[in-house]
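Record pair follows.
FIRST:
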Amino acid sequence: MNIIPLQPHYQYRLWGGDRLKCFGFHFDEPSIGEAWTASALKQGGSIVSAGPYEGMTLQALYEQAPELFGIDAPEFPLLIKWIDANDDLSIQVHPDDELAQSLEKEPYGKNECWYILDAPEGSEIIYGHTFESKDALKQALADGNVMTGLTRKPVSRGDFLYVPAGTIHALTKDLCVLEIQQSSDTTYRLYDYGRMETSTGHTRDLHVEQGALASFAPHLDYAEPVLRLDHFRKQLTRNPYFFVEKWNIEREESVSTDTFRILTVVAGSLEIDEHLFETGGTIVLPAHQSFEVKGNATCLVTGVSSLDKQKARIGIDLGGTNTRVAVVSKDGRVEKQFKFKTHPHLEMEATLRTISQAVKRFELEYEIEHVGIVAPGPLDLKRGTFLTPPNLPNWHHQYLVEPLSDLLGLPVTLENDANAAALAEAKFGAGRNVDSIFYVTVSTGVGGGFVYKKQLISGAHGSAGEIGNMIVRTEGPIHHTLNVGSLETHASGTALHERAKVRGLHDTMTLLADETERNKFVDSLATGLVNIIHTVDPDMIILGGGVTAAAALYWNQLQDAVNVRVYPHLRGETKLVLQQLKGDAGVIGAAFLA
């Protein structure tokens, strides 16, 4: 028997129930909140249930037969749990490896992920918060109103979420999940609804000081694309601690391992080398083996990621609303990212520290060979400073490159955000097959960038493409930085939002559905685009930014308005297209500034 089946260890939890029986588990005890199906922890180790190693604990097997696992780690690194949240779980956070070793003398922190097994309609989890800083978080905890700043995220059956250490989170009532995590049971409770532990009659301990120290503040929202590996396997995550794949088995498949895998059947039944496993079954597939699997089953398969660091580029998009820190592949694909609210009313140093925290997390996995950062203009690229970006008034004339480079210990390249998006679209997006493109972003502000033969044209003072201050009308709202009648004060997302608010409308989409308002917007934007065509004569103008989400309302009208304003011989010659890279253009361009 090459495979190693494991039997679960059941854990009582105050918030537990008996719904794990629906997934094939058998127990008589009340309030079972967790079934640990692959654990080497002393407080609940798994036992091999059949085969030559029957009766051994997983930890003993790991110590005595390391060749079965094919890794070099002092302790077995993973823990797999089935969780029945029969009530809301505490608001909690987990430490990373460094903090766990420092505070708890434990080898591993607790990065984890959830696969949603069952969720009633309308279910949500708590994932992140809106507190701007550690001080704001600590004050909310001290005042007992931390719940007011927590973020809820909708979930449904089959969803998958990675929860990095440092993320404030909680499962909510009536969810059942499969949790894959590092081998740690360290949890810092920040809030627990005042519940009493039945065995003691006292409220459960909180760990506010440790939890605040461990928490991301501001919250770092993690994202990673799902990758299809072949016809039956998808990669849900690959991080420095483990990888998780989803296998949909519908016929016989051949699989092989380099290092060990833990396979968990989350639905259906599966036959491996003629041994049958139903929902709830967890099996170790030893290293350097081949297996035949068949049946009709959905499985989650996990193992330990390679410790070999890949070379990578980091792109940082410091926007007026959000900041993104992303790992970008050599072919211009965002592999993973952290995002957080920018909070430009705070000191810029706080934002740079949060950027540094995100980059250092990625350095655990990648060898960083370039860091590029883009920000709203105008900028002084030679000195690496902001000048007077309209949407970041608190940061005017502040240095950006030098302090960030000092924090990271890496060289940093700075560019205007619209220029970087233009470079990305020219290299990897809508403009990859033409010689010259002008990119226009219509978002919080209005910006632009010109790329000729895949080279960014920055101008003598780094301000080429700064079209937001271009005058397109003779009147308009007063702005502390921009000209009266400028394109940005008439056609940006901010301008549309302000007009919608004055009219008592909910959003930009509703405003642009009004013919009069749409005509005003199209007239201003078309005038700006025509000025670009008559100035640099690009092959293509690429329109991007948040306002393009409503493009269906105005696109044909905009094209017509541009055509009637240009010289007759230019009508139809400059293609007007929508961006292809969408929200990723800024970070992709940033990653390729050098």
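SECOND:
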Amino acid sequence: MASTLHASTFVPPGFVVDRVDRDDALVLITVHSESDNSPCPACGTRSRRIHSRYSRRLADLPLSGRPVRLFVIARRFWCDKVLCSRRIFTERFDNDGLAPWARRTGRLDLIVHHLGLALGGRPAADFARRLQVPVSNDTMLRVVRRKGSPRMVPPTIIGIDDWAWRRNQRYGTLICDLERRKTIALLPDREPATAQAWLAEQPQIGIVARDRGGGYALAAAKALPAATQVADRWHLMENASTAFLDAVRKSMRSIRTALGAATIDPDLLTSAERLQYEGYLRREDANSAILALAKEGSPIKEIVRRTGHSRGLVRKILRGQRSDIFRLRESSLELYLPWLDAQWEAGHRNGARLWRKLKEQGFRGCLRVVSEWAARRRRADKVNGDILRRAPSARTIARLLTIGRDGLSKAETVTVAAIERGVPLLVEARETICAFQAMIRKKALADLEPWLERAQSSLVGSFAKGVLKDREAVSAAIALPWSNGQTEGQITKLKLVKRQMYGRGKIDLLQARVIGAE
């Protein structure tokens, strides 16, 4: 059955249409309230005595691709209550439909609010203009700020992590409700005192998932001493991989010896590599001088005074954290070196020809790169009949030692076998790290204590000491299902919102957009 459309169906409830005027650019609808009375905003008494009338002009939802304006004939009433502070008041409507002093209807304001939440200021204003809702970008942001963020449900399981206002300069803190998977608070900095003050207001929290940093751990311990802290599993895996990479860097001298690349022939170096080699020799002399002074019993302060190096550098050298291993600069030919070696052995030694064949295989380098490789290979053949052996970088070696043997080429397999045979301590460190990561994946909490006893005497002992110091949180990460992955995802969302506003959003606007959009 066909239904008849009346003009009153297009206006907010509670209004009667008096007149409709339209042209190609605008639809103007004149309306008045269908109620014969209105409550006084001061005392709540309803009045029917009309004092006067006035008009209000409001924007409403577009109709047939044209913007709509409501011309509201509003009334002023007398308040008949003797003790009321107001004698005359203006007519009040439903706040959801037409709020006092509003220039838009409630339903249009809701659309503007959601556009501002989703797109921000300028993009939302551009999109609204296409929808025939001409609202400026400043108005979009004012609406978002005015609405604010909804009242949060008191959480019991949270994740807490930092986010960058500006990388390496200023940071804030994001708190996520892990059960409801939503952001519940943004703090303006990442100071432990700020996080502690917020946590102290939420005594019902029982579990706090955090990263491996000590700031949030200290804040949670002070504010919620009975809560269980959970270390983030991703950070544990990442810290373990970093610990093994550090072990490889400390073992680079032994690795170079095992690979037969401990000596450098300066005659086979290019000009750029020779400059690097000279710097390497200078650093080696500085290291030897500092180690000799330390062996004589000189304190760090005296070594700093006599050598002129910084205190931090001296500490690094004494702790073995400065591995001055000369590494030839990695070339774009690295992936093609086995093929080039095979071609060279087969007698194809023309640089230009090799370069053309490489281009067919996808090589994007220039002719000069291949020509220099060929020239240096010829020099190596003339000097001692052997090429300059190059030890891979520490990161490459760490990758080769940790991936499956099925994924290695023949040359890589030989390299790994030589390292395993010449540096057994590194093999032990690899097994220790693999055991830790397997323990995290399998949630084998019973293996933690034996692992700690084994790991403290290995090359990754510093990592084991960090796990021992944070044992309770690490144990909770292994045993409990909670982690900080959801918090990291919310931070990614926050970064997107922040970039939409060109990094200029203040904390209240960020809270309104991130929390209010949930």
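COMMENT: Residues 237-261+389-482 form one domain.
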